[in-house]
Design goal:
This protein is an alpha+beta fold. The protein has a domain of 249 residues: Glycoside hydrolase, family 65, N-terminal domain (Beta-galactosidase, Chain A, domain 5, Distorted Sandwich), CATH 2.70.98.40. The chain is 29% helix and 25% strand. The chain contains 16 helices and 33 strands. The strands form nine sheets. Strands 7, 8, 11, 12, 14, 15, 16, 17 and 20 form a nine-stranded antiparallel sheet that branches. Strands 3-6-13-19-18 form a five-stranded antiparallel sheet, with no helix packed on it. The chain has a four-stranded antiparallel sheet with strand order 1-2-4-5, with no helix packed on it. A hairpin with a 5-residue loop joins strand 16 and strand 17. Helix 12 packs across helix 14. The longest helix is centred in the middle third of the chain and has 22 residues. The chain is globular and about 85 Å long.
């Protein structure tokens, strides 16, 4: 494992194949997710990201359906729009069973449908003979279970592994048990509604006899079992499990408003984003819903990802923000722990479940190695109060907000210079503890890596905004002196930041300061987050906006993380030249803040067009930063997560930025500042938008060079203001 870390860092994902070429079918429910190929099989030997995963462990690494030992032919494959059900239509290839016996292709139709519910994968097979003669054919299912930790799947090597125990087979059940090094017995159980004709080892076989036009059905349930999993209930029939899971999916809406536009394809993109967010939202106990970061590599709570996702979707569904704030408050660090990079008041970076974290081979069971989660937590709290007016909830988390501010002022500022720095203490912790957390993402103009402690630019900007938001909260809670002190601290930080981080020759904000306070004079997209947070002066914001939209940054698919011509620039890298939708959404919000609406619209247009070339029209975690070529799509990143929470949330943020939409439930007011719509959208209709206890329907419509806001319906006391 040490060799892997030296070469690539903890967050590296091994790419032994090109998943971008494979149309994966992905479903998730609670702490279980599955990645199948387009036929509904699992072939992790070819595509290492495939499998059925539960609590950070891959329970099924191989699952193939064969007809007379051959892979069937794919007719169609899809995932329902709500990400609930995978459906696959297959037929047999040409089968030569003997010199005189053959089955022409297209004789047998196989329909597979599958979904996840409470730690189980439920699957139904429906097989029909469309031939003119009686059919006799052998159908086989092959299984394999490697019980790899998610970090093993990503490419980490271990010196030893637990014990694979003997497979147990009955008449209609087969079990694959594994005793991990953490002492937990994990078992993959496969149950058949109809007893196979043969069930042994890793294979189940059915001798299918069907008259012409005759049909048969059978069901398979794959259970992911481990000691300590209390919530997994009894095995249900396919129809009962589907009914229960359907009710769950319907209840996942929360307080979402309805969004429709004049562009049908844009509506499709929005619908998929809504479905992805619902799928990623996970009950983390006591009905606290938290958006898991992304599938397959980050299907777990991440502080930074959850906070940014919540900000992106706050206007659209404030329930996500409340769940994120409550969960992170409950998991705020209380003590020092170098193994976890923990300090009092610090907000969580990530929580992992799996053998490698249970045995402390990795520190991520509960890990706090993030310099930005803490200020982002305070920022979200202030925004949530403004959006909802939910003063009662904010009162309950005020002690956590104060502890977060104390961490910023005391433990975050290692050397007392007024800026927050990061440096890992955990042996296998994360070197760069901001959103660009790959080990090579912070460097100098000569390409040499910056040495920690590192003060990165966007973290200082977040802290400026966090102190202003904390002051806003303090004022509404009656703590006027605290509010005054916080505003004073924010002004001082802004003054020092503008003096130290600005570089006229770059031009823009330097990426970071290294341990010797030497600036990293690198043109990176991080400077756009300074506009997002409002720390920049108007004049400097204009310089940053012009820089980020020039051809070195803007590829016509979006803003690159690093400008062309910079050292370490590589459009195929994770953070040094790629394009991230959430990064672009935050930059666009910064543009909107300073009045650069057309630039925000260009970013929205670019990402919208990008989604026409992605699987299920999703915004992926990231894609390559190559320039847009005529009549060609974007270049995809081979191991990007899709769905990814903050990528899915970015479409809502982009729309809000273009409309200049601000919702202040605490003042019963909706404001549109210089509303703008890109050419792709002639009109937008928002219905059932909650503003406190009021509800508003409105339309935004292009009219010549302006966007007109029309209130279609208003229930309750709320004012709508359009500011030019």
């Amino acid at each position: 494992m040490e060799d892997v870390i030296k070469v690539s860092g903890n967050h590296y994902v091994l790419a032994t194949s090109a998943p971008g070429a494979e149309q994966n079918r992905i479903v998730k429910q609670s702490h279980t997710f599955a990645v199948f190929d387009s036929l509904g099989d699992i072939r992790s030997v070819v595509f290492n990201n495939q499998g059925i995963f539960h609590n950070g462990t891959r329970y099924v690494s191989g699952y193939q359906f064969l007809i007379e030992g051959k892979r069937p032919l794919l007719l169609s494959s899809d995932v329902t729009r709500d990400n609930h059900l995978i459906t696959v239509d297959l037929t047999n290839p040409d089968l030569i069973l003997s010199p005189i016996e053959q089955i022409p292709r297209g004789t047998v139709h196989v329909f597979r449908s599958k979904f996840l519910w409470e730690g189980r994968c439920y699957e139904k097979y429906r097989i029909r003979n469309f031939g003119l003669d009686r059919l006799s054919v052998r159908m086989t299912l092959k299984f394999s279970c490697d019980f790899d930790d998610i970090f093993e799947v990503r490419g980490m090597k271990r010196s030893r592994k637990g014990e694979f125990r003997e497979t147990v087979a009955g008449t209609h059940i087969i079990e694959f048990p594994y005793l991990g090094l953490d002492g937990i017995l994990r078992t993959t159980r496969v149950e058949f509604s109809q007893s196979p004709d043969s069930l042994q080892g890793d294979e189940a076989a059915f001798n299918v006899l069907l008259d012409t036009n005759e049909e048969m059905e059978f069901e398979i349930v794959i259970s992911c079992l481990s000691e300590g999993d209390e919530y997994i209930g009894p095995v249900l029939s396919y129809i009962d499990a589907y009914a229960s899971s359907s009710r769950f999916f319907r209840m996942a809406r929360g307080r979402e408003c309805s969004i429709r536009t004049s562009n049908d394809f844009f509506n499709t993109v929005m619908e998929r984003a809504v479905s992805d967010l619902r799928m990623l939202l996970t009950d983390e106990g006591r009905n606290v819903m938290y958006p898991h970061a992304g599938i397959p590599w980050f299907s777990t709570p991440f502080g930074r990802d959850g906070l940014i996702t919540a900000m992106e979707t706050l206007w659209f569904n404030p329930d996500i923000s409340r769940g994120v704030l409550e969960y992170l408050a409950n998991n705020q660090a209380k003590s020092f722990n170098d193994i976890q990079d923990s300090e009092p008041g610090k907000i969580l970076h990530e929580i992992r479940m799996g053998e490698m974290t249970n045995t402390q081979e990795l520190p991520f069971a509960r890990y706090y190695g993030s310099a930005d989660s803490t200020p982002l937590f305070v920022m979200l709290a202030g925004r949530y109060l403004q959006r909802t007016g939910d003063i009662g909830f904010i009162e309950t988390i005020w002690p956590h907000i104060k502890r977060a501010i104390d961490w910023i002022n005391i433990y975050g500022d290692v050397d007392g210079d007024g800026f927050v720095e990061y440096k890992k203490k955990a042996e296998f912790g994360i070197r760069n503890q901001a959103w660009k957390d790959s080990p090579d993402s912070v460097f100098h103009a000569d390409g040499s890596l910056a040495e920690p402690p590192i003060a990165i630019c966007e973290v200082q900007a977040y802290i400026f905004n966090a102190k202003r938001q904390a002051a806003f909260i303090a004022q509404h809670l009656g703590f006027q002196q605290i509010a005054f002190e916080l505003l004073t601290q924010a002004k001082e930080l802004q003054r020092n930041f503008e003096h130290i981080f600005w570089d006229d020759d770059l031009p823009g904000y330097v990426l970071a300061l290294d341990r010797d306070k030497k600036p990293c004079r690198v043109r990176a997209s991080n400077m756009g987050h300074c506009l997002f947070s409002g720390i920049s002066s108007n004049a400097r914001a204009r310089v940053v906006a012009e820089s980020l939209m020039d051809e070195s940054f803007f590829s016509e698919w979006g803003v690159r993380t690093l400008a062309k011509g910079q050292p370490r620039y590589n459009p195929m890298s994770y953070h040094n030249g790629s394009i991230w939708p959430h990064d672009n959404a935050m930059i666009a919000e910064g543009f909107s803040r300073y009045g650069f609406k057309e630039q925000a619209g260009r970013i929205m247009n670019a990402l919208f067009h990008m989604s026409q070339f992605t699987e299920l029209n999703r915004f992926p975690e990231l894609f390559c930063g190559f320039e847009r070529r005529l009549n060609q799509g974007p270049t995809l990143y081979p191991v990007a997560c899709a769905p990814q929470a903050w990528a899915a949330g970015s479409i809502f943020s982009l729309l809000q930025s273009c409309l200049g939409l601000t919702i202040q439930s605490i003042n019963r007011q909706i404001t549109f500042t210089q509303p703008y719509l890109p050419d792709a959208l002639k009109s937008v209709f928002i219905r059932n938008l909650p503003v406190g206890d009021a509800v508003v329907d409105f339309a935004a419509e292009q009219h010549e060079d302006n966007v007109i806001i029309k209130v279609l319906k208003r229930t309750g006391d709320v004012s709508v203001i359009v500011s030019k």
